[in-house]
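RECORD TYPE: inverse folding
INPUT: structure tokens
STRUCTURE:
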């Protein structure tokens, strides 16, 4: 049988959000034919490549895995990973053009796909309600590069998130101001996304911008704590990467984050006061830091990209056999 194919458009992007991580990890681990456009066609300019060129490149494949929400509408062999339904649930978080595009194409992609995969039970419920599809749930993983290491000389709390409304970075400002008085920085790794409505008023945060993937493991391991204040996550890979790095986690107790954290993080309301109090309390309690560190390491061991790839492959192969 001809090998399945994978759409590696998201893997060509320099950014590294959840969909890019999935595309890179699956492209590297699955024995599929990888169709990867030039980096210049990895964002908006690549829609034409994905819709017109990719179906021709993958026409002979028994299945085409599209791991980053979008897929060619003309293809009839698609298995698509839809990570969440945020553009449908909260279109105001995105540019008008992007929200309108997602509102038109996501239902078509979900309806025409041979199978839909999503990344959490939370997202499965969202897709059932908003798109009327019943998706397979496959959790993401953590690369072994994320492991405990030396803490930085100057203490800092880390957040890994793009500057977008649903990441709720403004809720970190009260914590950043309070931590600064204790000599602790609150650093945010991640840049802007052109399709999202950006947040402002983040002056109290140490904004690192885009951080190269090779530098992320040390950045996670060097932090005294990790915080993710999101108001909407389909899964939340950074909390697991922080846990695997031996860094205690504070996260919003909403959407998929309780499912992903599995009791190994301190969950709080996604508002500035609750996050400030939680971080200050955690940094003042060495015993709680050690408890969360141990619980996080145990939780992160349950998630490996090899398992993710194997479960995705099982869905793809079932589609290929039935074609």
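DESIGNED SEQUENCE:
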């Amino acid at each position: 049988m001809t090998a399945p194919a994978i759409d590696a458009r998201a893997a060509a992007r320099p950014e590294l959000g959840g969909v890019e991580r999935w595309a890179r990890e699956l492209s590297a681990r699955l024995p599929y034919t990888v169709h990867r456009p030039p980096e210049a066609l990895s964002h908006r300019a690549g829609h034409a490549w994905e819709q017109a060129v990719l179906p021709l490149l993958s026409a002979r494949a028994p299945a085409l895995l599209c791991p980053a929400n979008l897929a060619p509408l003309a293809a009839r062999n698609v298995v698509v990973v839809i990570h969440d339904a945020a553009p449908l649930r909260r279109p105001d978080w995105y540019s008008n053009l992007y929200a309108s595009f997602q509102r038109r194409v996501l239902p078509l992609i979900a309806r025409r796909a041979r199978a839909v995969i999503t990344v959490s039970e939370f997202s499965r419920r969202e897709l059932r309600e908003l798109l009327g599809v019943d998706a397979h749930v496959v959790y993401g993983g953590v690369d072994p590069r994320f492991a405990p290491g030396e803490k930085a000389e100057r203490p800092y709390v880390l957040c890994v998130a793009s500057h977008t409304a649903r990441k709720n970075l403004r809720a970190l400002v009260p914590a950043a101001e309070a931590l600064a008085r204790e000599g602790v920085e609150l650093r945010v790794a991640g840049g802007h996304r052109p399709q999202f409505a950006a947040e402002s008023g983040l002056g109290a945060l140490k904004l690192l911008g885009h951080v190269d993937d090779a530098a992320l493991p040390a950045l996670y391991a060097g932090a005294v704590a990790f915080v993710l204040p999101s108001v909407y996550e389909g899964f939340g890979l950074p909390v697991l990467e922080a846990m695997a790095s031996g860094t205690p986690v504070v996260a919003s107790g909403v959407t998929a984050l309780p499912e992903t954290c599995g009791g190994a993080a301190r969950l709080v309301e996604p508002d500035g006061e609750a996050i400030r109090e939680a971080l200050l309390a955690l940094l003042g309690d060495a015993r709680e830091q050690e408890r969360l560190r141990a619980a996080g390491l145990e939780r992160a061991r349950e998630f490996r990209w090899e398992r993710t790839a194997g479960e995705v492959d099982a869905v793809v192969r079932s589609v290929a056999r039935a074609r």
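NOTES: The CA atoms of residues 93 and 259 lie 23 Å apart.
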